């Protein structure tokens, strides 16, 4: 169930009733230590309440440090991490989760995701996430990079429907059929790479929209995400960009412009394809 897009503290409600902030900070490629700690600190100080990391990012330690020095209460921050491919499987996922908690210096996560649909492993991995959820070690569980057929396969045996599916999403990769499928099953859609790994700034169409709304290109795209009911986590380690990325609550895109951005879909990925990703990389 979606809510009005109102301010940086706003949330979407997951299918288990947990409130997930719809704007967060992504920390992919942010260096562990001071760089990522500063980014998290700046984000929390200016009102962000959602931080997205992963074991493979190798910066969970710094994320935990940034949350700690911000003095924002732990229960007020929605913290997300992900189990990496080489750790998938039932027992190994449980161990990987504990290691993530140790690095973050936390005793629970708000959301834990299966990072990629590793063939012949993701069902056992999901069983482990269900167990972590039953034990209340995590408030919500979900997946990342799962296409429709992978979701359908998982859901055949799952006792708990995923609460989130985090996907590459931007105007050149809309995948509306997948969005519709997730909405039908109350799986919250979430965007990674909303700015097309920086390529969005080269598209002439966005310069026109930015001028029309007197906003930056990044702000146009992030507002587009939110108006489609999609959680978004732009990544940055730059203080000014972190602040700017959150300045998206004083305007609204017209339906015509949302439809126009949808029409730019090219089914083009800037990240890996879930159908043929190289799974063997070891953490």
Could you characterize what this model shows?
By secondary structure, the chain is of the alpha/beta class. The protein is built from 10 helices and 10 strands. The chain has helices at 34-45, 60-70, 90-104, 122-134, 148-157, 176-184, 204-213, 217-227, 239-245, 255-262; strands at 11-13, 19-21, 25-26, 50-52, 78-83, 111-114, 141-144, 164-168, 188-192, 231-232. Strands 3-4-5-6-7-8-9-10 form an 8-stranded parallel beta sheet. A two-stranded antiparallel ribbon has the order 1-2. Strand 5, helix 3 (90-104) and strand 6 form a beta-alpha-beta unit. It comes from Arenibacter algicola. Keywords: NADP, Oxidoreductase. Residues 24-265 form the NADP-dependent oxidoreductase domain.
Which key features would you list for this structure?
283 residues; alpha/beta; TIM Barrel; two-stranded antiparallel sheet; 37% helix
Query: Overall 3D geometry?
Result: globular
Helix content range of the residues, please? Answer: 25-40%
Number of domains: 1
By DSSP (H or I, 4+ residues per run), the number of helices equals: 10
Give the class-level CATH name: Alpha Beta
CATH superfamily: NADP-dependent oxidoreductase domain
> Can you summarize the main beta sheet?
8 strands, parallel
* Class from secondary-structure proportions: alpha/beta
What portion of residues belong to β-strands? Answer: 5-15%
Mean pLDDT: 96
Number of strands: 10
**CATH topology descriptor:** TIM Barrel
Just name the CATH architecture: Alpha-Beta Barrel
Low-pLDDT ranges: none
Radius of gyration: 18 Å
State the order of secondary-structure elements, H for helix, E for strand. EEEHEHEHEHEHEHEHHEHH
End-to-end CA span: 36 Å
Q: How are the strands of the largest sheet arranged?
A: 3-4-5-6-7-8-9-10
Organism: Arenibacter algicola
Family: Belongs to the aldo/keto reductase family.
Keywords: NADP, Oxidoreductase
Pfam families: Aldo_ket_red (PF00248)
């Amino acid at each position: 169930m979606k809510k009005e897009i109102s301010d940086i503290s706003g949330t979407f409600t997951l299918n288990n009733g947990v409130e997930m902030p719809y704007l967060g900070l992504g920390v992919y490629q942010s260096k562990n230590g001071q760089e990522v700690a500063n980014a998290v600190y700046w984000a929390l100080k200016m009102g962000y309440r959602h931080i997205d990391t992963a074991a493979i990012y190798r910066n969970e330690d710094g994320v935990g440090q940034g949350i700690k020095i911000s003095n924002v209460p732990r229960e007020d921050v929605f913290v997300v991490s992900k189990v990496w491919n080489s750790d998938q499987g039932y027992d190994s996922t449980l161990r990987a989760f504990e290691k993530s908690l140790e690095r973050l210096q936390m005793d629970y996560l708000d959301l834990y995701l299966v990072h990629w649909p590793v063939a012949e492993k993701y069902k056992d991995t999901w069983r482990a996430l269900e167990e972590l959820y039953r034990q209340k070690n995590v408030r919500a569980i979900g997946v990342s990079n799962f296409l429709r057929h992978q979701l359908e396969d998982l859901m055949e045996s799952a006792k708990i429907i995923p609460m989130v599916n985090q996907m590459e999403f931007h105007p050149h990769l809309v995948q509306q059929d997948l969005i519709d499928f997730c909405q039908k099953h109350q799986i919250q859609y979430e965007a990674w790479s909303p700015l097309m790994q920086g390529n969005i700034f080269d598209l002439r169409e966005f310069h026109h929209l930015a001028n029309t709304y007197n906003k930056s290109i990044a702000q146009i795209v992030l507002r587009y995400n939110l108006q489609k009911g999609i959680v978004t986590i732009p990544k940055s380690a730059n203080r000014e960009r972190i602040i700017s990325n959150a300045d998206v609550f004083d305007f609204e895109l017209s339906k015509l412009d949302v439809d126009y951005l949808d029409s730019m879909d090219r089914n083009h990925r800037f990240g890996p394809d879930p159908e043929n990703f190289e799974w063997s990389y070891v953490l």
